Amino acid sequence: MTISGRAPPRIALDAARIVAVAVTYVIAAKLGLRLATIGVTVTLVWPASGVAVAALLLLGDRMAIGVALGAFLANVTTPAPLAVAIAAAAGNSLEALAASRLLRRAGDFNPRLQRVRDVFLLTAVGAAIP
């Protein structure tokens, strides 16, 4: 609620969430890039994927914009060419969309992961979508 007693418009809330997702994604990506094994942009550990899937599961598919923005910003600040940053942004957001949609279609998946079934589904989908 705001001081006036009215809730902020949905578009403002979504914009704030998109920015928060992008910032969180960049932080997670930079942490992953610190573990680069080949050059400065190839790593076996990519915590930003977890951020992306969690954001889409918890906040909705429209957060893919934040994932794409975060992925672009994380990659454009590396020595990789601009085309790589654009392709990575598209790929990272599409893989998160695919994972979140598959998990939602799996039935009564609960992102709180309180059941073994939910952990199994998340692990299986995570392994299927690199």
Main sheet specs = none
Distance between the termini: 40 Å
The Rg value, from CA coordinates, equals: 16 Å
Name the quaternary structure.
Answer: single chain
Number of strands: 0
Which shape, going by the Cα principal axes? globular
**How many domains?**
1
- SSE run: HHHHH
Strand content: under 5%
Fraction of residues in helix:
55-70%
What's the helix count? 5
Uncertain spans: none
Look at the helices and sheets and give the structural class. mainly alpha
**Mean pLDDT, all residues:** 88
Please, could you describe this protein's structure?
With 130 residues, the chain is an all-alpha fold. The chain contains five helices and no strands. Helix 1 packs antiparallel against helix 2 and helix 3 packs antiparallel against helix 4. The termini are far apart.
List keywords for this structure.
130 residues, mainly alpha, 5 helices, 0% strand, globular
List the helices and strands and how they pair.
Layout: H1 10-33, H2 47-59, H3 64-76, H4 82-105, H5 116-128
Give a quick summary of the entry.
This protein has 130 residues and is mostly helical.
